[in-house]
Structures are given as C-alpha cells and as structure tokens.
Write a structure and sequence with these properties.
- The complex is a heterotrimer of chains A (312), B (492) and C (272).
- By secondary structure, chain A is an alpha/beta fold.
- Chain A has 13 helices and eight strands.
- Chain A has a single domain (43-308), classed as Aldolase class I (TIM Barrel), CATH 3.20.20.70.
- Chain B folds into two domains: 26-272 and 472-490, Aldehyde Dehydrogenase, Chain A, domain 1 (3-Layer(aba) Sandwich); 277-456, Aldehyde Dehydrogenase, Chain A, domain 2, CATH 3.40.309.10.
- Chain B has helices spanning 3-10, 71-89, 94-110, 112-123, 127-148, 152-155, 176-189, 204-215, 230-238, 251-261, 286-298, 318-329, 350-366, 397-400, 416-424, 439-448; strands at residues 34-35, 37-39, 42-44, 50-55, 62-68, 162-163, 166-170, 193-197, 223-225, 244-248, 267-271, 277-280, 310-314, 369-371, 387-390, 407-413, 431-435, 453-456, 475-476, 489-490.
- Chain B is built from 16 helices and 20 strands.
- The radius of gyration of chain B is 23 Å and the shape is globular.
- The chains are: A alpha/beta (312), B alpha/beta (492), C alpha/beta (272).
- At the A-B interface, helix 2, helix 3 and helix 12 of A face helix 1 and helix 11 of B.
C-alpha cells in the first residue's frame, strides 16, 4: 500500500496544467450505474444493520436564520437519544450548526460522543473576502468545534480561477487546528460531472478531510450519481497516495430507503473500510425520523406512523 | 496520532455488509409437464413421437418435456403457414395487421414478469437482465414493427413492397424471447406467416408466447412454433415451401445453411458470431469505460454474439485500467439467476461450459495470464467465474475464436491506426466499442472499423429502431429499424 | 300546460357540463360565458383563456418533447385504447360509427409514426469533406390548430394527432357548431397518460379566438385547415413572428407530421 506523502495535506499537484486532464466523466454511464446500484435488493438482516449505521453516520443539521439556543438545545437532545423508547438506537455522529450556536451545542453534548460540526467561510455562498473567511474559521476552531464544514468559492471555480479555490482550502485548513475539515463543493452549481470530479480532486489537494456535496440551500443537492463521482475521485486518491478521504452527501436525503441506497453505493465503490462515521456522513434532518420509523418497522413488523416519534 | 486519527482507529468497522438473497418468486410461472408443437393455432403431438426434457442450467433440474419435431412435423407447419398466408393473412388490411402486433406488444408488457422469470429459469440469465432488458425490448420490438405494418410504402418508396410468403426462422438460446421478437415482429409486419424453431435448450418462453398469440386472437397458422434440435432446423431450411430463411446462431451452422439454400432462390439472412474489439483510449472516462468493459463481456454471461470479448487498451493507461477492471470484477455476483442481486448467471448448457473450459485451458497453455476473482460457485448447475486474460497475443486462440462465455482477452495498442488494424484483423465483423472523449476520434474510428454496430462510450445497447447485423463472417442482413423490414419483403 | 308524465318518478339523467381543457384540467372560461351548441351549454373561451392555454402548452412542451419517441408512441396508442373503451359514447355523440372508428384508427396510425419519423425524414448527408453530417427532425414547439367544422370528431383528431406525435404541444380551437366531441375527446386525453398541457382544447366562437391565436407571438406554427374566409387575415397576422402556416390536405400522412417539425443539421469533423 502506498504511503501518504510528507506534506500536511492532500497530494501534491501543480494545478492548472494538471486539472483539465484530471479526467472526464460520462454522464449517461454514471447515472446508469448509480441507478442500477439503487436497485440492489437488501433484505431484512442487512437492512437493520444499514439503518443503524445510517443513524450513526448522521450529521443532524439545522442551518436557519431563525436558529436559537432553544432550537439547538432540543436538536442536541434528539442527537444524543434519537428514540427515547428504544435505547438500542445509537446516537448520531454529529450536529451541524451555525457558528453562533457552537457553544450551546458543545455544552449540551458534553461527554456524549456526539461531535459538533460548524459551518464557516460565509456559508452558504462563500462570496466574502478570504481574510474574513479564514478569521471565521479560526474563531470557530477556537470555540472548540470538532468539525468545520467550509464552502468552496464557486464563482472562482466557474470562472476558471482554480488556484484561488485551492488556496482558500489550504488557508482554511491551516487554521482548523484539531478540527477536521469538510469541504462543500455545492455540486448543484457546478453544472457537470466533470466539474464535480475536478472540484473533488482540488478540494482534496487543498487538504480536505471530507468532501461534501451541498449546502442544502439550493436544488439539486445530493444525488446518487454525484455521490458516485465523488467516491470514485476518493478512490483514485487512495490508489495513488494511500490517503483515505471521507465523503458526505447532504441535502435531499429524506427517506431511509435513500440512505440505504447511498450505503450500497459506498459499499460497492469503496468497500467495507469506508463504512464508518469517520469516513462517511449523511447531512440531513428529517432523514433521522424516517430511519427510526423503519428501524421500528423492521423490529416490530408493523408499518409505523410519524406521530410516534418526536420532532426534536 | 491526532485526536481524529485516534478516534478513527476505535470506530467500529462492519465486518460484512452483505446482500441477503432476494429471490424472485417462481410461482408466477405455470409449467406444463409436457408441450406439443404449436401449429395452425393448436397444440399438436409430434408425429416424430419424440420428446426431450429442457433443463434449468442453474440447478440441472428438468423443467418440462418438449416435443422434438421431425421432418413430417416441419412439413405440416410450413403447409399451415402457407395456407394462412394465402387464404387470408395477406388479404387483411395492413391497419388491421398492425393491430394484431400492437396487441401482442401490450400482452407482453402485461405478462412481462411471468416471461422474465421463465426466461431466467430456462436459460440461466439473471432475472435483472430478463426483467430490465429482454422483456422490455421484446415488447418494444413488436410495438415498433406494428407501426410499420401499414406504412410500408413510406419505408420503401416507389418499390411496391409485398410480403414474401412463409419465413422459416431459427433462433439461438442466448436471448430466446428477444430473438423470437426480432424475427417474428418484422416478418408479420411485412405480411408474412412464419414457422419458428427455438433453440433446443431454451424453448419455454417461445412456447409461452403461443399463449400470447392465442390471447391476441392472431389467425391460426400465422405463427407456428416447432421445437426441436438441429435436425428440425435443417428440415425447415430445406423445405421448398419456405420462401425465406432467417438464422441467428453460430458461424459454422450459418455456413451450412448458406450451402443448403444455394441454388434454391430462397432469401437468406444470417446473424452469426463475433469477436468484437472494445477499444479504450487514454482520454476515456475511465471508471465508466470499465463499466462498459464489464457490461460488454459479462452481461448475459458473455453469451452475446456482439460481446466485447477483446479489450484493446491504449498502452499508456494499461496498468490503471487493468487494476480498476480486476477490482470491479471482484464485485460481480455470480449465482442464482432468480436472485435479483445476481449479476452473472449460469452457463446455458453443459456443452457450452465444456467449450468455454476448453478455450480457457488453451489460453493458459498458449501463455496468457489468467485472472479470476474469488468466487464461490454453486455445487449443482453449470457455472463459470468471470475471467480475464492478460498478456494475450493476437494469434492466440482466445483472441481469435469466439468463446461465448464470460472470458475477456486483453491486448494493447499504441496509436489509433494500430487499434484499427488489430480490431479489424478477424474474419468476424459484428460489433465494436470505442471509448474516448474526443468526438472526431469516435467518428474516425467508426468510419474505419469493419463492423455492423459501433458503440461509442457505451456498449450492448439495443433498440428496435436501431439496425443490427454484421460484416464478413458475422453474417449479412440487418434486424431492427426500417432496414429490418427489407429481408421480409419482395419488390417490383 | 302540465303533462302527466312530469308527475311520474322517472330517473332524471345528470346533464353534463362542457368545459375547456387547459393544462390538464377542465376550467370554465375565465369570462364566465357560455354558448349553446348541440343542445348543451358549452364554455365560450375568451382571449385570456387562449393566453392561458398557450402558456400551459409552452410549459409542458419541453417535457413532452424530451420523452423518447417510443414513449410518445405508446401514449398515443393508449389514447386509442381509452377511446375504444368509450366507443359507444362517441357513436352516440356523432351518430356515425364509421367516423368514430376512423378517429380511433387514426390515433393508432399516428402512434406508429413516433419512432420512425427520424428514419424517414432525417438523413446522414455525404458532404464533400472529412465531416460527419446528419439531419434530424425536432418539434417546433407550440402549435395552434383551427379544427374543421365538420366532421367534428374525425376532423379534430386528423388535425391534432400529427401535431403532437412529433413532440409539439397544441392549442386547438374546436368546431364551433359541434364542439361536444372535442370536449369528450379531451376527457379521453386526460385519462391516457398525455401530460397536462400537451393538448389544450378551447370551445367558443372562432371569430373571437382565431385571430388571437394567429397573432400570438409565442405560438410557433398554426394549422389553418379549419379556417374559412378569415384565412387570409389569419395568415397575415401569423407573419408577425414568422409562424409556420400549415394547411395540410385531407387523409393521413407523415408529411402532415413533418409540417410541424424543424430540421436540424449537425457537422462534426472526422479525425484522430
């Protein structure tokens, strides 16, 4: 197995000459492959395992202008104990919130093992001066957030200024400290799968620990084909450098059935080693309750009603 | 170690995330113990008195007994077809003829699950393929040709097209129902009556098709199904009452048939074997190209005349492609054809399995390097693991002869010219694949490849509107599209 | 004067309301008007209804055009299936079995063209240079149709089917004197997997509707086969956005379909 390079982040590459040959992606084939993997049949035993894993992989999210300490506190309680009537249901991986709510979340989640992920870098647009975005990240890291979700500058990417995109990721990574960095590509704005692949490799080169599909603020957000493209990029990085990068589809995943399809995709593309919250997360909110519904259905044999699960 | 890395080590990694078996139920299919011949709209006992069992290749269990037609039986069938053709079928208006075909198409759609299960049971192909490919295409073929039945003057302007009369049709075991549709739909649309002989190892969907014919209220004698082996086929070919012969199968038998009709004036179309080159250039989208390679040779266990059985990979990306290919082969699931998760099903017959083994042994002996992903094959039934040979020379048997199994031979090339040379260096010419992002190169390769079907950045795509057929010893004549009508017509 | 039979308890049939068919729904005219035809009150469409119909057609056009030809063919065949199921109702409306059969068979005939048009109308063109050159047909967009006064059903179908089989969306002004068959056909369309908005049927006075249709700047083509003396004026109005003006003859033909299709030619070099 190849050894990771001595550099602090990603794998080395001189950017502009390399990027256009980073390779292309055939749209029809990739969508076809994703669709055929989505038709894999999972039966009972595997399903329960998958649902449990999906809960453990969830970044329970609230990113609204109207978020208050009260709202986030309730979210944290839900995160730690998703189903009070069934304590075998595990806690989620993390909560994902705006910087102003980080201290509240840290307080509530203390000792629970549930991590605090904060967005930063002028989320969701990223259209702010770099210095401000770096400063925001540094503050959030200082507050004690475990994870930081940044956005790439899509304006820079789409106008061909790849060097700027790369530099921003590097500068943000530098001030993350111990927090691990997720880089949001906002795939819904990138236009083609070719661009998704390029942006993935760019983000990883800049030091991303995780690459993430979307902010959840626009449509389309995560899709199976986009996820497949990103997982394939991660696979290529692993083959070349031995470094394992994580992946997070976010937004638009509302049903447990979809979550299971993503796990099938993950399993077939990257294998069992990636089937852990340390390398795969779901960015979602209503998905959690649908997973709980399905878990209870698998355990009791009865189709469930949302009335029996708390909103938060 | 950082905090994160410490936590990474402690996180539980699942030991297995397996697909539990997801079998499609067999109950939807009702099998008779014994089937006669379907002649003149009725089930009749074979005058030959012969019956043979048809076997499920996945379990070696006998499924039903099927009649083996003798010369007299073939004669009766041809006579019935002739009678139907002359006494009514050729007189009904084309619009009404179209409606019969539309009915058949719709019934196939309604009963598609039943047919898909039966196809997988009898032939060994995964239910996912019979359900998602064979059945929809079969129905679509009838739908497409239904539309031509009353529009023939537009297909052949100024040629005054007329039906030929009686078509004798012989089909193979790799896509039984689909091949039946490819034969019967255009023949009927053109106004002919047919006698069709299914392959001896896969008669059941053709026999069930007779029930569709009944439900569609097709006049008796227009479609006649005579099951049997090569002898029945030979009888059909030489019967003087047959105006046209259509054959899909091996090149060797195709040549025999061509000899048999020599001098008779019978029209003939042949769709024979292939040894297609699947050509990957260095700018191809690699992960999708690998999917294309996989699909090209392991789809339907490689029992495909147009299978991409020779991988021609540009030397500059050779290592990368082989690594991805081997990795991807490791995720192929070989097993019960009725399991919805199965990718590769059973080999169709013991004979075919022996042929595959023989050629694979030859490959190893000649010096090619073999790779097969670890694969637990079931005890009963006929199975072969997906196989790839590297270090293959153009002259090896595995690079020249059609294996008709899940076996890929890999060769390399340096330039487009060399790829063309190697791709065309075969007596076959059915199909080819080209993988590159560059449009002009796709067109240039397409122009120079001597093959009847060129797939660019895709593979094994079929559509009733798309003509299919080969160059050179892969046969002549086209099936599908407007061109697919021509073999069934005569012109002033 | 009171008649005895009015006092008897006989079952009173529920009379049908004949409305417009726009965007897949059956609204009344926004003007609230109706007129009497064939013994029933029929919606009298206004220019605003026509405006809404064109908008609905424009919105649905991309979806209909991007369906595979096979799919569109199947939808048209389904129209025939549903219409066949309602054959008795149509025979009662038109009083002519042969006309109803012809109308149903017309759907079947045109359904079969959907996936063959490109093969008959298109071509690959042997240009004198290292280029691959091919021509293929595409729907023009939103097509306005003035249906003939007679025959009310078969004439309507004969004008409508060729418009939509190629992927266009239609706004069709029905026979003014005998509109009921058109509205009943709209009910068939609404239950046959035809996406709402692909066909929009307006009943009312032709002298209020046709000129608005002909002058509408977002309509790409117009079939004036059913127009009478006003034809010249309508053709003149159509010129303002260079509409394709079509007057297909009688009978059925792929050229009737071609009249509403554009032809696109593509060049690409051939080289390594």
């Amino acid at each position: 197995m190849a050894q990771a390079p001595a550099l602090p982040g990603g794998f080395e590459l001189p950017l502009e000459p390399r990027l256009p040959r980073i390779g292309s992606v055939d749209q029809v084939a990739v969508e076809d492959r994703a669709a055929s993997l989505a038709r894999r049949s999972i039966k009972r035993e595997s399903k329960l395992f998958a649902l449990d894993l999906a809960v453990r992989m969830m970044d329970l999210t609230t990113l609204e202008g109207a978020d208050t300490p009260g709202k986030v506190a309730a979210l944290c309680s839900k995160a730690m104990r998703p189903d009070p009537s069934d304590l075998t249901v595990p806690p989620v991986a993390a909560v994902c919130i705006y910087p102003n709510l980080v201290s509240i979340a840290l307080d509530r989640l203390q000792g629970s093992g549930v991590r605090v992920a904060s967005v930063a870098t002028a989320f969701p647009s990223g259209q702010s001066p770099l210095e401000i975005k770096v400063e925001e990240t540094a503050r959030v890291a200082e507050m004690g957030a475990d994870e930081i979700d940044m956005v790439i500058d899509r304006g820079a990417f789409l106008s061909g200024d790849y060097a700027k995109v790369y530099d921003e990721v590097r500068r943000v990574k530098e001030v993350c400290g111990n927090a691990h960095l997720k880089v949001i590509l906002e795939t819904g704005e990138l236009g083609t799968y070719d661009n998704v692949r390029r942006a993935s490799l760019l983000a990883i080169a800049g030091g991303a620990d995780f690459i993430k599909t979307s902010t959840g603020k626009i449509q389309p957000a995560a899709t199976l084909p986009v996820t497949l493209v990103m997982l394939e990029a991660i696979r290529d990085v692993y083959e070349e450098t031995g470094r394992k990068i994580g992946m997070k589809p976010a937004g638009g995943i509302r049903h447990a059935k979809q979550a299971v399809q993503y796990l099938v995709l993950l399993h077939e593309t990257l294998g069992v080693e990636w089937m852990t919250p340390d390398l795969f997360r779901f960015g979602a909110s209503s998905l959690l309750n649908d997973c709980l519904l399905q878990i209870r259905k698998e355990k009791t044999g009865r189709y469930q009603s949302p009335d029996y699960f708390t909103i938060d | 170690m950082t905090e994160i890395e410490k936590r990474q080590d402690r996180s539980p990694v699942p030991s297995a995330f397996d697909y539990a078996p997801a079998p499609e139920s067999r109950e939807i299919v009702t099998l008779e113990d014994r089937y006669g011949l379907f002649i003149g709209g009725e089930w009749v006992e074979p005058k030959s008195g012969e019956y043979e069992a048809t076997i499920s290749p996945a379990t070696e269990e006998p499924l039903a007994e099927v009649a083996y037609a003798g010369p007299e039986d073939v004669g009766v069938a041809v006579d019935c077809a002739r009678e139907a053709f002359e006494n009514g079928w050729s007189d009904i208006t084309p619009g009404e003829r179209a409606k019969y075909l539309y009915r058949i198409a719709r019934i196939l759609q309604e009963r598609s699950r039943e047919f898909a299960v039966l196809e997988s049971l009898d032939g060994g192909k995964p239910i996912r393929e019979s359900r998602d490919v064979d059945l929809p295409l079969s129905a679509a073929h009838f739908f497409y040709y239904a539309g031509w039945a009353d529009k023939l003057e537009y297909a052949f302007p100024n040629r005054n097209p007329k039906p030929l009369g009686v078509a004798g049709q012989i089909i193979p075991w790799n896509f039984p129902l689909l091949m039946l549709s490819w034969k019967i739909a255009p023949a009927l649309a053109a106004g002919n009556a047919v006698v069709l002989k299914p392959a001896e190892s896969t008669p059941l969907t053709a026999l069930l098709f007779c029930d569709v014919v009944r439900q569609a209220e097709l006049p008796p004698g227009v479609v006649n199904i005579v099951t049997g082996d090569g002898r029945a086929g030979a009888e059909l070919v030489k019967h003087p009452g047959v105006d046209k012969v259509a054959f899909t199968g091996s090149t060797d038998v195709g040549k025999e048939i061509q000899r048999a009709v020599a001098g008779t004036g019978k029209k003939l179309t042949l769709e024979l074997g292939g040894k297609a080159a699947n050509i990957i250039f260095d700018d191809a989208p690699l992960d999708q190209a690998v999917e294309g390679i996989i699909n090209g040779i392991y789809f339907n266990q490689g029992h495909v005349c147009c299978a991409g059985s020779r991988l021609l990979v540009q030397e500059s990306i050779y290592e990368q492609v082989i690594a991805k290919l081997k990795r991807r082969m490791g995720t192929l699931r070989v097993g019960d054809p009725l399991d919805k998760n199965t990718d590769v099903g059973a080999i169709n017959s013991r004979e075919q399995l022996e042929k595959i083994k023989e050629l694979v042994a030859a490959g190893e002996e000649e010096g090619a390097e073999i790779f097969q992903p670890p694969c637990r094959l079931p005890e009963k039934g006929w199975w072969f693991a997906p196989t790839v040979f590297t270090n293959v020379a153009q002259s090896y048997r595995i690079a020249q002869e059609e294996i008709f199994g899940p076996v890929l031979s890999v060769l390399t090339f340096r330039t487009p010219d060399e790829a063309i040379e190697k791709a065309n260096n075969t007596p076959y010419g059915l199909s080819a694949g080209v993988w590159t992002e560059k449009g002009s190169r796709i067109l240039s390769m397409a122009q120079r490849l001597r093959a009847g079907v060129i797939w660019a950045n895709t593979y094994n795509r079929f559509d009733p509107a798309s003509p299919f057929g080969g160059y050179k010893e892969s046969g002549f004549g086209r099936e599908g599209g407007r061109h697919g009508l021509e073999p069934y017509m005569r012109f002033e | 004067m009171w008649r005895a039979e009015w006092g008897k308890s006989v079952r009173l049939p529920v009379k049908k309301t004949y409305k417009l068919y726009v965007g897949g729904a059956f609204p009344r005219s926004e003007s609230g008007r109706s007129y009497e035809a064939e013994g029933a009150n029929v919606a009298r469409a206004s220019r605003k209804d026509l405006r809404d119909a064109v908008r609905a057609a424009r919105e649905t056009f991309p979806k209909w055009a991007s369906m595979t030809a096979y799919n569109r063919g199947q939808v048209l065949y389904r129209v025939a299936e549903i219409m066949e199921g309602r054959r008795a109702q149509f025979v009662e409306l038109t009083g002519d079995e042969a006309e109803v059969d012809a109308a149903i068979d017309s759907w079947v005939w045109y359904a079969g063209w959907a996936d063959k048009l490109a093969q008959v109308l298109g071509s690959s063109n042997p240009v004198a240079g290292p280029y691959f050159n091919f021509t293929f047909p595409e729907p023009t967009g939103v097509v306005g149709v003035v249906a003939p006064e007679e025959p009310a059903l078969a004439g309507f179908v004969a004008r409508l089917a060729p418009v939509i089989v190629g992927g266009n969306a239609a706004v069709i002004v029905a026979s003014q004197k005998r509109p009921l068959a058109a509205v009943t056909l709209a009910e068939v369309l609404a239950t046959s997997d035809v996406p709402g908005g692909v066909v929009n049927v307006l009943t009312g006075r032709k002298d209020e509707l046709c000129s608005v249709l002909a002058a509408h700047m977002d309509v790409n083509a117009i079939d004036l086969s059913g127009a009478g003396d006003e034809r010249e004026e309508l053709e003149r109005l159509a010129a303002d956005n260079v509409k394709r003006v079509v007057s297909n003859g009688d009978g059925q033909s792929p050229w009737h379909v071609a009249a509403f299709l554009e032809l696109k030619t593509v060049w690409h070099p051939i080289g390594v």
